[in-house]
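Quick one: structure tokens for this chain, please?
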Amino acid sequence: MKELHKNLHLALSTGAVLVVGATYGLYPSTFLPLFFDFTVETTDLNHVFRAMMGSYFALGIYWAYSLCFQSHWRAATYSVVFFMGGLAVGRLWSIAVDGIPSTAFTVGTVLEIVFAIWGYINLKLYNKE
């Protein structure tokens, strides 16, 4: 049970970034308007979202790798904390400056905060391993 709790955080983080990355980058002009209040109409904007997809996939693949190779668990968990924490701080700043976003962005903010805090707690819980 201990290993399940320890690895659940990384497994869910992996799934989340892979799904979000695919949503951002596979067909940005098709998928993004379904979830957000904007359209993707230029080649440059497609490039931006596909680059984001690449970075999300890279992190997701590393986190999945660390589930299989536990010697990477701590570094992967730190990267989740910093990645999700950074996204959450940016979104909280935007909420303070720009106001409350759409439901999709609000849910994303909450999940990023949860994943960052959960990762931090796991780093403290499994400090000796």
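The longest helix spans residues 43-68.
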